[in-house]
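agent> fetching stored inputs for the NAP docking request
agent> found them:
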Amino acid sequence: MPPVRELDLLHKVAVISGASRGIGRAIAYHLASRGCSILGTCSGHAGVDALSTGLSEEVSRRVFAATARERPESLQIKGLVADIFSDDCASVIADELSNAFNGRVDIFVNSACDPMPGVIGAMGPDEVRHSLLGNIQTPVMIVEELVRRRLFQPDSRIIYVSSIRSRQPWSDQLMYAAGKSAGESLCRTWAQAFGGKDDRYAFMAGTTANAVTAGLTETEAVVNCGPEAVQRFQDEFFPSQSIPRFGQPEDVADVVGLLCGHDARWITGCVVSASGGGIKIG
Ligand SMILES: NC(=O)c1ccc[n+]([C@@H]2O[C@H](COP(=O)([O-])OP(=O)(O)OC[C@H]3O[C@@H](n4cnc5c(N)ncnc54)[C@H](OP(=O)(O)O)[C@@H]3O)[C@@H](O)[C@H]2O)c1
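agent> prediction call returned; pasting tokens
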């Protein structure tokens, strides 16, 4: 039986990039189970269906029917194709918020990424550009668009899903690690800008920005690398973890969820390790 959560995010709206599968989907489920409306992005129509129908029905069944509670009318769950490699990703998201979510966003979670590793000595400029676009430029442009259109609300939450790879380097993942490190840096600057000190962003004062650095997590992105690679990852990461097992998407989602609540209002500009102790920060 899943936990019965307080509906503390009722009437709030979350945008989660890469929400149709894996960690992003678990974050969407977690926030929806607290009453938050979800605009989840993905790369294709199968993902839209997985969100608008699959996730929405699962939330109705497991969160509300199973606990004999009515699903709140305000709770919307929608999928949207917003390719992180397209020029209009940010405006597509902002348009949808304006058209279907009362022109507001309270939580932005950047979970979609370019998983291209970046092997030293084997990269061309196109691969490097692609990685910078997916992991840095598009998240920046999404926040830019949401700020410019003043869709962010006071006390909003911005969370960039990073990776422990940014602190546990490997020559075969140069670009992936660099993109994640940059995401953590973006959060520090967003935190400083949006807290309330800068009049230009007074409309969203109290907003926090943090990175959650995920450890080895059992998702398709990892499992599809094949058994040999999975074993290599386990051999690399388990010894440094305090809890030596694969993380599940829900393990990471629950940490993201902690940062989204009112109780986390004083945590900003941080990197929180969601890795079973794989990386110890602080
Ligand atoms: N798994 C791990 O061990 C691990 C560890 C550290 C950090 N992370 C981070 O966690 C995040 C999620 O990873 P995951 O393992 O959950 O990945 P995943 O299971 O492969 O899920 C990827 C999600 O991103 C979406 N996506 C893929 N390409 C996209 C594009 N071009 N535009 C928009 N959406 C796109 C997918 O949508 P479609 O269904 O439409 O393809 C899907 O919803 C990533 O930022 C990753 O770096 C993961």
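agent> quick read of the result: Helices lie at 22-32, 45-64, 89-100, 125-148, 174-194, 220-223, 227-237, 249-260.
agent> awaiting further instructions
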